[in-house]
Amino acid sequence: MDYKTTVFLPKTDFPMKGGLPKREPELLAQWAAVDLYARCRDAARGREKFILHDGPPYANGHLHFGHALNKILKDVISRSQQMMGKDANYVPGWDCHGLPIEWKIEERYRAEGKDKDEVPIVEFRKECREFAARWIDIQRAEFKRLGIIGDWDNPYTTMNFAAEARIAGELGKFLMDGSLYKGAKPVMWSVVEKTALAEAEVEYHDHVSPAIFVRFAVRNAARGELDGAAVVIWTTTPWTIPANRAIAFGADIDYVVIEVGAVSDTAAARPGDRLVLAQALAAQVCVASGIESHDVVAHLKGAELAGTACAHPLDADGFDFDVPLLEADFVEVDTGTGFVHIAPGHGADDWELGIANAIAVPDTVGPDGRYLEHVPVFAGIPVLEFDPKKKKSRFPANRAVMEKLSERGGLLASEKIEHSYPHSWRSKAPLIFRNTPQWFISMEKHDLRQTALTAIDNTKFFPAKGKNRLRSMIESRPDWCVSRQRAWGVPITVFVNKKTGEPLRDPAVMARIVDIFKQEGGDAWFARDAQDFLGDAHRADDFEQVTDILDVWFDSGSTHAFVLEDRPDLQWPASLYLEGSDQHRGWFHSSLLEACGTRGRAPYEAVLTHGFLLDQKGYKMSKSEGNTLSPKDVEERYGADILRLWVVGSDYTEDLRIGPDILKSHSDIYRRLRNTLRFLLGNLSGFNAAERVGPAEMPELERWVLHRLWEISDGVRQANENFQFHGLFTELHNFCATDLSAFYFDIRKDALYCDGSDSPVRRAARTVLDILFNHLTVWLAPFICFTAEEAWKARHPEVKESIHLQLFPDVPEAWGDPALARKWAKVRDLRRVVTGALEIERAEKRIGSSLHSHPQVFAVEDYVRAMTGIDLGVIAITSGAELIAGTPPAGAFTLPDVVGVGVVSAPADGEKCERCWKITPEVGQDDAHPTLCMRCADVVRRKA
């Protein structure tokens, strides 16, 4: 007889190899065919809502790994919240306005020899809109391929007409309450892109600049020691010297007046010159200036310099005005001279100090980066020139200013310095600080700053350190500059009275603008006559129509209004905002200010941030380094579920590493999880409700597995509530690999394969396997959404419902049995000692498998007590075993961390059963089946 046919071998169509690159698109097609998103919404109707509001990615290119990390994490959270019994409706969105898209269209124009400024603005905006729409379609397909479920048919976009109308309306609220005002302040300015940039659009790179020491001759001395001396400043922006209007000093800094002695042949200083410097920096300045000896002729505290005024070093060239010395708290003595040259039009601190001391802010540099025509000597000279092809920059104005200073005797010394310098993230060109007329939202007028700080305190942050980061930014931030001098965006819908210079604050006009935008979008601002917006109450000739556009951060900061409030299937505020940690300065920040300014609170209950991506060695990803990957590469080789495993298997609160070796590691982890599901499916073949047994009828081992599910269930819910997936993933993986595959499955294979169908042990094991499958697949579904669905369908081919419509199962409290867990911890420790001993026997080739062994196990009392009622041979997977109470004899195999247990190996006695492969003296005792043990002979007889 062929006894192999009598064994209950696993049967399943769930393949060992996932074949995810081929299988996943098939599942996506199935989900689309049944409209899984709509089914989820129907199933969740009436439940408590959990709304993760999508921070809009930018519609201008294929997805990169940052996109994949962000969207997968959002999807895992939305799916898990849905499966915890909430209505987790996820509506994806896109940011469509702004410089990156405009820059792409301009690049196309330049390649065709066209000038953007000669193209009608409405036509230009149409091309930008079409560009964004094309990339939205591409990115939508790429996001869906990652398994992201959401309302892809009805996403939000900032360029939607209704959205543009709402954004204009939100700005109108700041206009009406007086928070919006026009001012002139130094802002980060891109000469190449001819617009102001937000801090979030700025990146910092190393840059070499000339650092110069410049003499300002004292003209009106507050103290006699300063007569005939010159105050020395130090700056890395020589081009700002024409804009100098003051010099800053520190009130508590110790200063000295030195008299120059000997000098080098190349020194600009001469013996007898008197210079004013910070005492701590005097020696360094002398070395840099070629001053070989000097005498200190006076000591002064900074406060004693107040009231002194100097002459501008280029006073003979049209800069003939007093340069006062002003106290400032930002002056330091770590570098330079202890004096800071103040150009109010080219620095934030400079501007604040100038305004506080009623110093006029001069306009010296135009939008094109050239000195304006009224600037003496330097009119028309470019501050910055940039070659976009070579990504090279030069500052012609630096040389021009330094040459003129040298000619006039003002340049004491110069040197080169490498420092971190702001650049445009788009063009990669260096930026300048430039005083420009801009529109601002006041942080103080209606207590916006304090309202935002209070809102931060009422928000949960994951990780918690995000709260302090955002709080410090709000505490110190200046007024919000919301205007940009570009074409593609929501226009600043403001009319300015030509006589008074005041913006028109008329709710009827704003309502008319919003209504027109709903029908025609923001293009109407440039296409329609101004009178259409002003109506009968105002004459267009009396007003100037603003042509600036809104900062795109105001756009995205307003999404809570036109997404959360305007869609009945969502709610305001959002349960969660989730983005990279850079968005403390970006989307979290602008959304907070916009909502606090218009609604008095944050638009979110909680904020979650994740880190940035590095390669597997910890380096920043760069095309030039050849260490980049794309999500598409991984999908085509491994499948999206491997990417999803990488996301949940990484600690997202820190920077995340990705690379071939890491992906290979997660592919191995995936294979172990898949094999666990395959084992469950194979051994549940033919299982039905009649076979099921209750916990009270189960052996201890099965009840221990139920206890582990009880333990894990609490952790699953806790982890999902706190979005801590890394630890949960680790626990689920270890449960599958260690508790199940290496322990429980290993032990129960014999009963599952070889016991009779009515065996109490086999029925209990199959009941537990069914419970395990129903729990594990649902718990894993948010993580590996494709594989969980595939396994679910393999188990329930007759059921049309998706696993993603299931809820996390409620684990009965009665399954928890801590006392049983403590007992089985002892059993497992004892088993580890036996397994270690058998591994040595196998390595020495004294046995082939553990079934060839019949060990003697010596154990002290607490281990013997733990083994009460347990068959040691079954647990150790040997053909038999003897448990002996007592201290292990000398020479027995032991493990240092399991004190009191030792193993003496011995071969099993008897013959090998042809069916179960155990070696036992029973083989040969059944005349009908002489090659079987008694258990197997009985099973075969009853099956026949």
From TrEMBL:
Broad class of the protein's primary localization = cytoplasm
Which is a Pfam family this sequence falls into? Answer: tRNA-synt_1
Keywords of the record: Aminoacyl-tRNA synthetase, ATP-binding, Cytoplasm, Ligase, Metal-binding, Nucleotide-binding, Protein biosynthesis, Zinc
**One of the GO BP terms on file:** isoleucyl-tRNA aminoacylation
Segments carrying motif 'HIGH' region: 57-67
Cofactors needed by this protein, per the record, are: Zn(2+)
| Domain Aminoacyl-tRNA synthetase class Ia, chain residue ranges per copy | 27-658
Residues that hold Zn(2+) according to the record = 913, 916, 933, 936
Q: Where does the record say this protein resides? A: Cytoplasm
Q: Does the keyword Cytoplasm apply?
A: yes
What note does UniProt attach to the cofactor annotation?
Binds 1 zinc ion per subunit.
Q: Keyword check for Nuclease, yes or no.
A: no
- The record places domain Methionyl/Valyl/Leucyl/Isoleucyl-tRNA synthetase anticodon-binding at 702-851
Among InterPro entries, the record links this protein to: aa-tRNA-synth_Ia, Anticodon_Ile_BEm, Ile-tRNA-ligase, Ile-tRNA-ligase_type1, Ile-tRNA_ligase, M/V/L/I-tRNA-synth_anticd-bd, Rossmann-like_a/b/a_fold, tRNAsynth_Ia_anticodon-bd
- What enzyme class is recorded for this protein? ligase
- Which residues constitute the signal peptide according to the record? none
Which residues of this UniProt protein bind ATP? 623
User: What is catalyzed by this enzyme?
Assistant: tRNA(Ile) + L-isoleucine + ATP = L-isoleucyl-tRNA(Ile) + AMP + diphosphate
Q: What residues does the Zinc finger FPG/IleRS-type domain cover?
A: 910-939
Positions occupied by motif 'KMSKS' region: 620-624
**Which PANTHER family does the entry mention?**
ISOLEUCINE--TRNA LIGASE, MITOCHONDRIAL (PTHR42765:SF1), SOLEUCYL-TRNA SYNTHETASE (PTHR42765)
What does the annotation say about its assembly with partners?
Answer: Monomer.
Q: What does this protein do?
A: Catalyzes the attachment of isoleucine to tRNA(Ile). As IleRS can inadvertently accommodate and process structurally similar amino acids such as valine, to avoid such errors it has two additional distinct tRNA(Ile)-dependent editing activities. One activity is designated as 'pretransfer' editing and involves the hydrolysis of activated Val-AMP. The other activity is designated 'posttransfer' editing and involves deacylation of mischarged Val-tRNA(Ile).
UniProt lists the family membership as follows: Belongs to the class-I aminoacyl-tRNA synthetase family. IleS type 1 subfamily.
Q: What is known of its domains?
A: IleRS has two distinct active sites: one for aminoacylation and one for editing. The misactivated valine is translocated from the active site to the editing site, which sterically excludes the correctly activated isoleucine. The single editing site contains two valyl binding pockets, one specific for each substrate (Val-AMP or Val-tRNA(Ile)).
Which protein are we looking at? Isoleucine--tRNA ligase
Write down the species.
Varunaivibrio sulfuroxidans
Top-level taxonomy: Bacteria, Pseudomonadati, Pseudomonadota, Alphaproteobacteria, Rhodospirillales
